[in-house]
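hey so i finally got around to running both of the ones u sent me last week. sorry it took forever, my laptop kept dying halfway thru and i had to restart like 3 times lol. anyway pasting them below in the order u listed, first the sequence line then the structure token line for each. didnt double check formatting much so if smth looks off just lmk and ill redo it

first one:
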Amino acid sequence: MSRLTELRFRAATGFQRHVGNPILRRLPLQTVLETTGRTSGLPRQTPVGGRRVGDAFWLVSEFGEKSQYVRNIKADPRVRVRIRGRWHTGTAQLLPDDDPVARLRSLPRFNSVAVRALGTHLLTVRVDLDG
């Protein structure tokens, strides 16, 4: 990873962890992905942008396998997603063969622009929702 890419990653994740995420996850209509911490075993909530299509929820991780929530999914794919204020359980799948740039075109525009602007290693994630 280049020095500039690493700097971008550290700046973005630091801001998200300490400023953006604590505020956004409290907003009732913000979409939130809840994973289980791979070390702590505690629930970890991350605001995300994405879209429900049928019985699946799609999102693109801007830092791919460096994202903490992606690392948590790799350890335990059982997740919850809060969509429009309602929690849904499901199983997350990492899709490295999917085209994340094309996928972003089908997701909410505001979040997609931010993911493309900040992202360094885009990775598509699909959550298959239960019932």
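and the second one:
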Amino acid sequence: MRIEFVQVDRTAPPADGAVAVIAFEGGGLSPAAEDLDKATSGALTRAVASGRFSGGRGQSLELLAPAGLENARVAIIGLGARAEFGPEAAELFGAYAYQAVKVSGAATLTLPMPGASAEEAARAAFGSRLASYRFDRYRTTEKADKKPSVAAVRVAVDDPDAAAAAYAPLAALGDGIFFTRDLVSEPANILHPEEFARRVKALESLGLEVEILGEAEMAKLGMGSLLGVGQGSVRESQLAVIQWKGGGDAQPIAFVGKGVCFDTGGISIKPADGMEDMKWDMGGAGAVAGLMHVLASRKAKANVVGILGLVENMPDGNAQRPGDIVTSMSGQTIEVINTDAEGRLVLADALWYCQERFKPQFMVDLATLTGAIIIALGNDYAGLFSNNDALSDNLLKAAKAEGEPLWRMPIPAAYEKQIDSMAADVKNTGGRPGGSITAALFLQRFVNGLPWAHLDIASTAWKKPSSVPTLPEGATGYGVRLLNRMVADAYEG
């Protein structure tokens, strides 16, 4: 979708296409809405007064070809209290506006925003773009009237150049989010570990350095924990190592992603109902890949490492069995109690490799790790587990600023006994009580004193359905905004 910033002209309303304006709680109109109301001899005021539209956030009201705008359609978007209008509300305005007219037949959507700041105008454009995401590459018989018609969003502002400059980093962020959403949306017969690695390798065109380790290289490194997960698949496991070097001689920061491209549960096989959703069990790796895409696109002034453990968990005759004992890269032995607790086995080796090779300031891992986090926090919050308060604070601040909610969870040492094994150094599951906590405690055993945070994003990587206009139903790209903001605010020189 094309984004344009043009000079606002309050005396000449758009002659065609769709135009969206703002109404506030109680029926108050924005300046642009007042202009259109005058141009249509009060049509907007009459429309608002004729029904139950109150200007509440998310409400919308459409007028088709009102007198004075015979070739246009007008969408009135409710945004709640006028006093609460700012960049966040502007982003929602753009998203709600796009959703209101996306299949209307209009090719353009104009958002007149006289008096808005450059940031507010940029965020409105960004909201429209995020709302426009649609994974439709495999739809071949969809009727034309069901497809979005809006190909361009035109934001009319007082200073188009300033708005365009403010939008540039958001454009890079949008590219990274869409890259993640595409990865997470792909079916597993297309996006297996080798294909995932190939797509990440292609990011070298942005200036990233990418290495791909295959099973032979990982075996030499002693990654028995990661390799055990993928041994039942005909697809070779991969480890993608991505580096962005924008921070001179600074010590790098690191992000590690769980990339289980499909998770049957292995021998501990999952129920058939809903198993198709396990194509998105690589959402953590997808988020890290999208983050690296953003950082390279906007030339971040930081040294950043991304590590992706890419596997497929399948139940063939060579698959890992419950009761098997594997040796991790750290040297610790792991008793595999449940082969469906596989993501932590992948991360155990990926985390150890990351800290051993790169000696980063900190590590943050992202993983669709446990169903228990959904039971604990519902479908809107990801769980944050960490051994470091300063790192946690930076994550929580960024999460609040970007609207990607996080909730810090405890990792009490007393729960360690749940993952003690009689046969090995540790076992990979501690049972149902505190399941997301014991998973985090397992990961912590492979963090050698380094500041570390674990984000369990099982509740947020995929929405079905979504009530947030910037999030589509399906892959959300959760984590890309949050981590990009944290890097920008706390770790760029």
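quick thing i noticed on the 2nd:
Residues 169 and 298 are 6 Å apart (CA to CA).
anyway thats it, ttyl
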